Amino acid sequence: xxxxxxxxxxxxxxxxxxxxxxxxxxxxxxxxxxxxxxxxxxxxxxxxxxxxxxxxxxxxxxxxxxxxxxxxxxxxxxxxxxxxxxxxxxxxxxxxxxxxxxxxxxxxxxxxxxxxxxxxxxxxxxxxxxxxxxxxxxxxxxxxxxxxxxxxxxxxxxxxxxxxxxxxxxxxxxxxxxxxxxxxxxxxxxxxxxxxxxxxxxxxxxxxxxxxxxxxxxxxxxxxxxxxxxxxxxxxxxxxxxxxxxxxxxxxxxxxxxxxxxxxxxxxxxxxxxxxxxxxxxxxxxxxxxxxxxxxxxxxxxxxxxxxxxxxxxxxxxxxxxxxxxxxxxxxxxxxxxxxxxxxxxxxxxxxxxxxxxxxxxxxxxxxxxxxxxxxxxxxxxxxxxxxxxxxxxxxxxxxxxxxxxxxxxxxxxxxxxxxxxxxxxxxxxxxxxxxxxxxxxxxxxxxxxxxxxxxxxxxxxxxxxxxxxxxxxxxxxxxxxxxxxxxxxxxxxxxxxxxxxxxxxxxxxxxxxxxxxxxxxxxxxxxxxxxxxxxxxxxxxxxxxxxxxxxxxxxxxxxxxxxxxxxxxxxxxxxxxxxxxxxxxxxxxxxxxxxxxxxxxxxxxxxxxxxxxxxxxxxxxxxxxxxxxxxxxxxxxxxxxxxxxxxxxxxxxxxxxxxxxxxxxxxxxxxxxxxxxxxxxxxxxxxxxxxxxxx
Length: 696
Ligand code: GLA
Fold this sequence. Notes:
Layout: E1 10-15, H1 23-35, E2 39-42, H2 47-50, H3 60-71, E3 75-79, H4 87-92, H5 119-136, E4 142-146, H6 161-175, H7 178-185, H8 212-240, E5 246-247, E6 249-250, H9 259-262, E7 270-272, H10 282-296, E8 302-306, H11 325-335, E9 338-343, H12 369-382, E10 396-399, H13 402-408, H14 419-432, E11 437-440, E12 451-454, H15 462-474, E13 477-481, H16 502-506, E14 508-513, E15 537-541, E16 550-553, E17 557-561, E18 565-571, E19 579-586, E20 589-594, E21 597-598, H17 600-614, E22 630-635, E23 638-643, E24 649-651, E25 656-657, E26 668-669, E27 674-678, E28 692-694
Parallel strand pairs: 1-2, 1-9, 2-3, 3-4, 4-5, 6-7, 7-8, 8-9, 10-11, 10-12, 12-13, 13-20
Antiparallel strand pairs: 14-17, 15-16, 15-18, 16-21, 18-19, 19-20, 22-23, 23-27, 24-26, 24-28, 25-27
Bound molecules: alpha-D-galactopyranose (GLA).
């Protein structure tokens, strides 16, 4: 297979010339050349123009576009165009439209209007893919296939009758017998025992909580069903164009698709990410998404397929990116392993649903801030060939698991949780401490990481318990947080004090959950009090947090210690004096357990303790002011330092800034400032490169 990444990072975006008269195309390629664009994604939403009637194709315009791009040295990521079925498909095959949980069949007139299980949709998608592959597979501009687009973005669950049949087939393949399914789903509860697979439906709207395992299986099925769509198109492409790699664009930490199961099937991991400029934590969250992309490819370079140059149009209010912010976020992706920076889209649309979404070339033309920033980034990336293909070094692993995510967000649990928020909290704390974090499914070897964090791994498999234990035994400092190991993969409770096999790793067991506060929010509560009468926080006291008590938030639980040392206790409330934080020496490593959620500040104290416990030494601290986040990432020989904060910082690191050619040491880095420092600092000891001090 041909390599996708070559000598300099890819730079470009979605190119939708079909929205414009041909006269504009020449200007497009002239401007692309000027801006250093070398890769564009073509045809993502062009199905209706490519196949205006079933089986009748109009390729003339696409022939011209690809030739024009080729003549101008721009390579193409060619879409299979199957993400937005044309009106004729739903007209002729109305059953191909998706149905919501409430039984509403969605209408055409938007995009992604297909049921992933629809035979009519799948047949049409395969046919279009084959026709495109046969026509353009040998075109010299085409370097990558872009299968579909953002699978599951709008329709990730379909509840129609065809989906129901497909779900039954999936269940039959998984369980073989209806008895096995009844046992796994615990259908003895609430009179749900099934006599045959034929009786089973998707978890459509129900009078009370649906069966939890049925719901989780439907989540798994739905992710697999979209993957099956991807694999059908991929099989066609492999057959016709075996040398051209394929991608499909992921969506960061998207909830509804389990990217761990997808990643092995994708030749090049690619991502779409739209951090909200109005969110002061946007760069922190984005760092996690980038780390996920690198980790999905097991460290291989990936492609930032889409981001915005400035404002999007999908939020109630769409704040533009601050001057320099697009550049800073682009370098964040590069630092964290991307070998290409692309945008949605090349030219801002004049019509259609996304005409107020920014683009590389804005409505106002080239005498604009956005265009100047695009030109600057294109020129800089062209000179950063030395980064392409190099690896980003990580110091810690964060276990991130879609089964746990889906399960902990179901109804009928001790509290409501956002799994992403629980995990992102730890990712941000590690990142702010100067560590780079890989994400991991948790059932593979973790022992190479000095630090392993396991946030609320609600569904714990035996393989995950074994990998976590093995990491601690081999020397990792492992932290497991509350609500881990509560159930097995069938969502059956792990009896006898929760945590499963991790009880012996951690030396603790749990008697009872004690979530804090929030009683007023419970549906059905008589609303006598306007506010919670129970404080949603609890004091936590221990050396780790210094002389002041730490703040436990939303959650506590009654922990019994078997053979661990107690490092902090709850103070006040019903659990006063009971363990809140424990540590057990396990093999040559350590296994910590945290029985609450901590404030940001207290989390930082615990992270510092874990770093000390692991033997990693911080050479300096990152200081960026109140809302500051100064990001430091080592990729290959280069140290990226990016100031996402609101105050300037001064660099203490020796070396040359590859972007400006200036000496890095003593340099002032303004907000949104970026330096890429070479040569590398000595990191052989796996110590984080932290090279920033506060200005003044
Ligand atoms: C997604 C899609 C694009 C576009 C952008 C807008 O990433 O793939 O087609 O809709 O969102 O942000």
